[in-house]
Structure formats: structure tokens, C-alpha cells
Amino acid sequence: MSHSPLPSASLTLAALDWRLLQPEDLPAMHALHLCSIEGMAAQTVKPETREFLHGLLLGRGRVIGAWHGAALAAYGVLQHDLLAQDDPRALLGLAPGQVLYKLAGAAVAPAWRGQGLQRQLIARRVAWAGDAALFATAAPGNVPSWRSLLACGFTVRALQYRYGGHARYLLARLPGAALAQGAPARELAQDDIPGQEALLAQGWQGIAPGQAPGSLRLVAPTGGGQP
């Protein structure tokens, strides 16, 4: 299948048609997934199988898609059927029965990048979720991904090693959660994974990009935290 055609300079996001993807949209979704991760290392993004994507379309989740004519320009997944090893309720301090959804992947065609589609995909899925708790994962090196999530109300809650032992931020957006006002804050470099991991394990949260490229600004939990 060929990639999405390049939009002309006159086209904007208003030219896109948004709708829920159906099982028959699997070829377009899989092709866009492969296109979106082309040239990216496993440390940065997790390749998904066609079978996994098909399962989402068959009912394990909901997938919002943005179409330009017959071409799929972007999609975002909201997954509700979570595997046990993919369930962070205990880590996030949530009750076992708390409603929890995952933002389980998104893709934007190269021709449509730089127009805010990632944040639109997040916002639409947040609206779908209502009052449910939400989480997502993103590699520290995938800066555009976690910056978009932070901008949409998520915070970095933990640093895990997943998908073959690669570092991943666990980000969450929890109903009623509030950060401590005036709490100590620190900015840690993108490559200071041990330092970030240590603070996150103490209850600090990543709330915003730092001033240095790729860095993360973290704030201490209520009651402080080790400086």
C-alpha cells in the first residue's frame, strides 16, 4: 500500500475527517503504523503486530482516525482490555476495580506532522475516557511523544523497563489528582536515567519539559522528598 499523499500547503487540519476505525480499516492502520516508525529504534518505539492492531479494532479498544480523502492521516488508540502485566493500578495507587484506560499508541503520517495532530489525538481520547483514569508509556528519547502527553495533563509517574528491557516513562492522568503547591523542583537531563528513576521512585512527578533539550522537570511529592 502506498503512503499517504503529501497535502498541499493550502490544506489544514480542517480538511480531515474524523471517525472511529472499523475492522476493515486494518490495512490502512497497519500501513500507517509501519510508516510512522520507519527508521526508529526499538529503544524509542515499540513495533506492533498486525494481530494486535486487529484485536483493538475487534473490541479490545477504540481507535480514532483522521482521514484525508481515502488516506489515513493519523490514528490514536484508547485501550480498555488490559493484560495483567500491562496493568499499573497498584503502581499508581489505584484500587483494583478503578476504571483505567491506556493510550496505547498513535501514529501521524509524515506529511501531516508538525500541525498538532498528536495533541488532538490525545485530547479526543481523553474526552472519550470521561472520568476514567488514563495512562500511557513513552521512551525518554521519544521527546515529542511525552511532551505532548505532558501538555495534555499527564505527568510522569515512574520509569520502567519494558518491551525487551527498554526504558519507558509511565505517564498518568488521574481524576482529582493535584500537585503540591510550591514543592521543590529539579530539572534532570534526558540521559540521566538513574537520577530520574531515583526521584520518581520517591514519589516525584515529571510535569514539564526542562529548559535543556530533552530534559524533564520534576516536582517533589507533598511533604517534600529527597533533594
TrEMBL record:
Any keyword Transferase?
A: yes
Q: Which InterPro entries match?
A: Acyl_CoA_acyltransferase, GNAT_dom
Q: What stretches pass through the bilayer?
A: none
Task: Look up the domain of life of the source.
Answer: Bacteria
Check the record and name the PROSITE patterns matching this protein. GNAT
Ranges for domain N-acetyltransferase come to: 16-175
Molecular-function annotations in GO: acyltransferase activity, transferring groups other than amino-acyl groups
What keywords is this UniProt entry annotated with? Transferase
Protein name (record): Acetyltransferase (GNAT) family protein
